[in-house]
Structure formats: structure tokens, C-alpha cells
Fold these 2 entries.
Entry 1:
Amino acid sequence: MRNKSKILVIGALGQMGTELTAALREKYGWQNVLGADIHPATAELQEKGPYFKLNVLNKTMLGRVVSNLNVGQIYHLAAVLSANSETDPFRAWEINMQGLLNVLHVSRKYQMDKVFWPSSIAIFGPASMRAACPQHVGGDPMTVYGIGKQAGEFWCRYYYQQYGLDVRSIRFPGLVSYTAKPGGGTTDYAVEIFDAAVQTGSYQCYLKENTGLPMMYMPDAIRATLELMESPEDKLSVRTSYNLAAINFTPRELAAEITKHIPDFKISYSPDHRQHIADSWPSSIDDRFARHEWGWRPKFKLSDMVSDMLCHLRKEVYA
Ligand code: NAD
């Protein structure tokens, strides 16, 4: 990282940011990874490592942080997720698009070594292939979140091609984790179901039982991010965002796997507006570019993820 030694994570308190910040601190040293989010700093947060309040829409403040604190890499995770974006599309557009543009602008100005920004399977839509959706296919996003991700991918490629800014990106599927609550995405059911199974033994799912979606356990998502960021630049041909796949399942299949551990677990279905979004997304993703170019391999199958989630929830969250 030349003379700029610090890593800045924006959106550090979110579902992904919580675990990515911890993983980066473990790898690069806690003092070298600065966590930032729109929420105020608390003593508890600062105990884990440097943390400060930052609104990514404040470009001047972002520039000051980057230049004064010797930042050489930015992981930009701050966003409004798919389902929440639909309730206030213009606010979501501003945070998701202007936030990314601010990060790209500041990264170019202060010559970041690398930038990471996650995209999503939400760039796909009804005209995309339902199964094994390929890397290079025109997007067809139906949500304001997906439109922003699609546009953001092209902005990332533009900054790479025009200005040589090394921006790297992954199109994540739905992420499952236990450390932080999900942030209002269409795939949140796959996190909520575990809390409900452990706490009450039953769950009412807002998607239909046979809604198959691509998903990933958070440890795989964190490892993928670190592996992509460590890959030699000349290996990477995709400068929009890499398709990435791990597990595909329906709510019924997930519930059946949970029932192996909690035999009395009951699930019911009451689809809401999120069904429409889920129906527009592919049920599986072709990630051969990530596999060939930087060696991506998922580790967690559905059964591994369910065992691990329940074990951690019982031991650490609801002990
Ligand atoms: P999240 O909603 O859990 O976290 C986002 C964080 O950004 C929150 O802590 C929030 O406080 C912060 N934030 C919001 N507005 C901000 C602002 N103006 N300035 C600074 N911080 C702000 O989201 P997540 O699940 O951690 O997602 C992280 C990234 O990964 C996002 O870009 C998201 O689109 C992408 N992604 C997530 C999933 C998933 O299933 N969670 C799937 C695909 C892609």
C-alpha cells in the first residue's frame, strides 16, 4: 500500500460491514482499519478499533478523512438495500449513487491504491436468464436499487478505464449472517428465519415457498472480498462487477434443513411486495469468470450454513 497505510470501511456497522471490518482488522491490524458509518461513535464501537461518524454524501468530509488519515484503500459498503429503497426511491438513489460517485471522485483525487464496492444480483431482471445467469448479459433491473447497482458498475469501469482507478466489485447474492441484523433487502427472510427458529420455533415467510434465489453465507462473502482485493490486477478482466455464486435454495428447502436441527420448527407463507422483486431475479448465477480469474470457490453448502448459523446463534446471541 505504498506510503498510504490505512483502510477505510464506509458502512462499517451494516450486515456486511460488521464482519468485513473485523476480518480486515485481523488481517492488517486493528489500528490500520478505520470504520465509518452514519451512526455516531460510541465508546463500545471505538473499543474495537478506530471508528467515526461519516455521511458518505458529505464529499468534503470524506476527502478530509482520506487525506488526513493516510487512507490508501476504501471499501464502500454504505447503501439503502433493495426492499427499503422501494419505499423512498429518490433518497435511495441519492445515497446509493451520489455516495458511490463521491467515493470514486475522492479516490481518484487522493490516488487510492484500490477501492471495493459491492454490486448485487439486483442488476438482473425479467429479461435475464433465470438459471445460471451469465456474467456478460445486459442488466434488466426492476428496482431503483438494481438500477443504481447497474449504473454504479458502469461508473466503476469508467473510472478504471479513464483514470486508472483500481475499483473492484462483486455482484453478491443474498447474504446470510448472525452478527448484525439485515438491512432491508429482499433476501432478509433467510436471516430472520434463524432468529425465529431459535426464539419462537416458527416463522411466517414473506416469499412463496418455492422462490429459489442465489444466496451466500457471510464467511464466504468476506473471504471472496479479500481474495478479489488481493488478486493481481492483470488477472482481472471484469471491471464492472463479478458474478459470484455459492448456494441456491427456496424457503421450503431452507426450512427443511432447519427442521433437521429443530424438529418442531414450523413455517407459514404470506407473500408481500418483496415477492415481486424476488420473482424478477435469477434463481442461480454462472460465476465462471470469478472461478477462472481469481480462483473463487465457495466453502459453505446449505447444510453447513444451517449448522453453523444455529450453533453461533445458540452460543453467542441467544445463550
Ligand atoms: P446494511 O444496510 O446492513 O448496511 C449499510 C450500512 O450503511 C448501514 O450501517 C448504514 O448505517 C450505512 N449507511 C447508510 N447510509 C449512509 C450514509 N449516507 N453514510 C454512511 N453510512 C451510511 O447493508 P449490507 O447488507 O451490509 O450491504 C453492504 C453492501 O453490500 C451494500 O452495497 C449492498 O448493496 C451490498 N449487498 C448486500 C447484500 C445483502 O444481502 N446484504 C446483497 C448484495 C449486495
Note: The domain at 176-214+247-284+301-318 is CATH 3.90.25 (UDP-galactose 4-epimerase; domain 1).
Entry 2:
Amino acid sequence: MSLITIIWSMLSSACLTLAGINLLIWCKNPKARANLVFSLAAVSTAAFAFCELWMMWAETTTAFATALKWAALPGWLVSLSLVGFVHLYLRAGRPWLAWTVYGVRTLALLLNFMVGQNIIFMEITHLRRIPFLGETVSVAEGVRNPWMVVGQLGLVLLVVFIADAGVTAWRRGDRRKALTVGGSVVFFTIVATGQSLLVFWGIVQAPITASLFFFGVVAVMGYELSYDALRASLLDRQLQVSEAGLRESEERMNLAVDGAHFGIWIRDLVRNQIWATDSWRALFGFKKTEPLELESILQRIHSEDRDVVRMLLARAIENNGSYEAEYRLILPNGEMHWIASHGRVEFDVNGKPILVRGLSHDITERKAAGQETQNLRDEIAHVGRVSMMGQLASALAHEISQPLGAILRNAEAAELFLQNASPDLDEIRAILDDIKKDDQRAGSVIDRMRGLLKRHSLEKRPVEVGELVGDTVALVRADAVARQVKLELEIQDGLPLVSADRVHLQQVLINLIFNGMDAVNNGLEAPRVRVTAQLDGAQAVEIAVSDDGHGIPADELVHIFDPFFTTKPNGMGMGLPISRTIIEAHGGRIWAENNNGGGAVFRFTLPILDEVATK
Ligand code: ADP
């Protein structure tokens, strides 16, 4: 077999093989239109090579002319598929230029079949035999066809179109593609066209070997496509690896989710389907293969919680895209479980909800523990309330005994006065006045205590400390006189206002004064209780009740504010704890200490009214 036959048939079979492969790729993936166009280019190149062989071995001018005429058809197809390939592969090229190339090349093809023997020769007059690759081949000579320029114009336009598309791709950043496809196609097309022109114009004595150059183009195109296929397969492998990773992390997540006793459910809103993990099904009491429907799931929820869950789900889908709920579940076996769920809705690009993903877990134990804590808290609160009421009841008895005692003493005095033949009515009137005042005091004590029992808050008002202390001392003065205790009062001038509940504060003061009088009553010669009120820094007023009695033993000092701590035979041990409650409710502090010169001093502070403090 001759060298020419070997080269040309090898070239054709390579083209046909590449065409077959790419046709197959296109069949598998009709979107891969570049592969289809490439197949066309490769088949056309093979056909063109066949026509070239036909010309080289032609014995007669007619055979040569026929071969040349039919060679125009694959030539036309090569140009067309090149335009298509460049357009599809580089995603560039001006459409109007592409259509011009199609138009001119098609016109040339038509002229090829209509004018003269073909578009190159009007008539081939004779064949010349020339040596080529060590053999003798035919080349034609004759009258040239002037329409040849149309075909050549088409080729020039083809080169322009490809170069332009290459530049666009280059500018866009697809530099490698622009260089390999654009550059090589332009190069080979120019060379092929140039060689044909030189041959046809008789400048070079050689057979037409355009298919060799077309093959160059086909090889570059094939390389590009296989490069893409290689990249696709690499990506595919990467995808497989990452899919495997994904599967593994999915498995791990499932394990973690199962381990944490979480259940996952996914609701496809488009297909109206619900999928759930096995652990979710176990949680909700559904069998592994049982079909899931929203309504049947909702029916498992306690009737009292169902509507809330339904509403939360609907709201998540309609507006905010997520929900969180805690509800009771009644399983088919009647067991009740507490479930905590949270979920998120996924929306498509148009904002339409497509999927709901939910996570649920059993919180029955947590709820039970919470309930226990709540019960405990309630119990403590109850005990607290009971003890508070006990304190108040004792305090009431204690506080009320003072005005009642005073009333009794006054009534006795009045009785004595009335035994007189001419009783001093003014004196009796004054006594009755005192009785009335004591009665009012007892009444307001009861009212306040009732208020506390009803958990009423303190009725705080701006109070002048000096006035309040003075009034209170006046109230107990009669008792002091009866006990022969000297009651001293010292109030700093211009004390600021405090915010206080008058009656409560009076109670505290009375209690402290009586305690002081109790302490000094044990046979002291000149028993004395001293009440002072003065500024304590810039923010508070300090009121102190001091006595020169027996004082408080050091070990008792820490206990005297404890409820029921008393050292008195008839004491209740409630006065000081209640006083502390009242003072602390005013935002103040109360404490006791022993005087250096003997006796005890009880001090408490009251915060100054804000507006006044900031003046
Ligand atoms: P009660 O007056 O019923 O004893 P309190 O709570 O008022 O209850 O006082 C508790 C105890 O604090 C008193 O029993 C007494 O031992 C001690 N105490 C209170 N005030 C003084 C004081 N001025 N001097 C010494 N001890 C006091």
C-alpha cells in the first residue's frame, strides 16, 4: 500500500473514530451539542480526505472535476461545524457574522454545483502528473471559475468570526480555550485555505491536502473535548469522594441523632410527603413502614396542645420560617410523653415554602424534674406564707396589746376620776381623747397588718422623718411616764424627706422604744431611752433608739432578729424580725449594737427621696 493511502486512510479512520466517540457522548447527553458538531466536523474531514485521495488518483479530467465538486460538500460542512463548535464551545462569536459565514459558504456551495465544473474550475482541461511523497499524483489545470472568490470570501469570514470569538473568550478570562481553540482553528484554516489557493492558482505544484490541516483543527477540537471529559471524570470522582463523605457524615449524624434520642422528620410540601428517621417514628409510636401524614401525626398530640402545634406549624410556613414547641404526645398504648420540637421551613427562590425540617426529642424526664422543682417551690412558698402569717398574727397581738393596754389604763383613770363627787370633766375629756387616739392606732395597726396579709405593698409617701419620729415619741410618752422612763428626742434640723409608709415606720419605732424601755426597767435609777434622727451620708437618714439598759449579750446579738427569739417571760420574739422586714421593704437596713457606756442601740436607715437627694 502506498504511503499516501496509508496517511490519508489513517487520518480518515482517526477522524471517524473521534466522530463515533463524540456522537456517542452526544447520544448519552443531548445537551453536549459541541460533541455533535465536532462529530460532524470529523466526519466531513474524513470525507474531504477521501475526495482528496480521489483527486490524487484521478486518471481523467472528469474524474478529477467530479472529485473536486463533491469535495466542496464536506468542505462546506467543515466550515459550518467550525462556526457551530466555536460558538458552542467558546460561548462567543457574533451571531450576524456566523450567519454571514453560513450564507456565503452556502452560496459558494450552490455555485459549485451550478456554475462550471466546480467552484474552482470552469473546466479542467488536462491533468498533470507530479511526484508527491515518493509517488505520482494528479493535479488539475484548466479555466478558473471566477466565482472562486465567493468560496474564498467565505473562508476569510470564517477566520474573522473565529478570531473575533477567540478575542471575546480571551477578554472574558477563558484564555486557555481562546488560545487553543480560537488560535489553532484560525491557524489551520488559514494554512489550509492558503495551500489550496496556491495550488489552484498554480503557484505551487502539489495536490490539495487541506484535510491534513482540517485534521489539525479536528485534533485540537478533540483534545479540548477530551480535556473537558477528563475534567468531568475528575470532578465526578471528587463528587463521588465528597458524596461518600456526605454519606458518612449523614450516617454519623444519624448515629448522633439516634444516640441523643432525637428524631428527624422532613415534610415535602410540594409532593405532600413526610419522611422520618426510625428514632422519630419510635418517638411518635409509628411503625417503620407506616405511611406518615400530617393529620395522623397531629392526632397523636394531646388534644389540649394540638391546636397550638397546628398553629405554630402554619405560622412557620406562612411567615417566619421556624417554629419551636413543647407538647404532650399520647402514644397508641396510652402513654403520655412530653416532646420538644423545633423546625425550619425552606423556601424556593420565589419565596414559596417547599420543605419543613423538624427535630423532636423526648423531654418527659426533664418535665417531671421541672414539675418536682415547681412542687417544691410551691411548698416552700406555702411554708413561707404560713410562717409570714404566723409572724404577722403574733406581731398583731404584740402591737395591738400596746394601744389596748393604754386604753385600759386610761379607762381605769377615767373611772377613778368619775368616782369623785365633782369630776374634772376636762381631764376626763382629755382621757377620752387619748382613748380615741389609741383606738385609732390599734385600728390602723390592724389595717396595715391586714394589708400585709393580703400582700399589699407598702403605701410609701414622702415623709418628714423629724415629724414622724416626734409624733411616734408623743404616742408612747404616756407609757414612758407610766414606766418612769425618760424619753429623750434629738432630731437634726432640716432632714430631707424619705419615702415611707408612716404607720409601718411608727410600728418599728414603737417596737424599738418599748424594747428599750423593757431593757431599762430593771431597777435602774434614772432609766432613759433616747431617740435620734440624723443624716447618714448623702443618701440616707439614720434613726437610732438607744438605751442604757442591760445591753445584749454578744452571743445573742446574732440571733435577736430571728423570729421567736426572746428573753422576756411574756415575749413573742416577733417585734425585731417584723421591724427588719419593714425596714428592708423600705430599702433600708437595721442592726443592733451595744453602747460603749452600757445598754444597746438599734439603728436603722432609710434612703432619701431621689429628687431630694439629687438637689
Ligand atoms: P420580744 O420583745 O417579744 O422579746 P423582740 O423581737 O422585740 O421580741 O426582741 C427580741 C429580743 O431581743 C428580746 O427578747 C431581747 O432579748 C432582745 N432585745 C431587744 N431589744 C433590746 C434592747 N434594747 N436591749 C437589750 N436586749 C434587747
Note: Residues 511, 515-516, 519, 547, 549-552, 560, 565-568, 571-576, 600 surround adenosine-5'-diphosphate (CB under 6 Å).
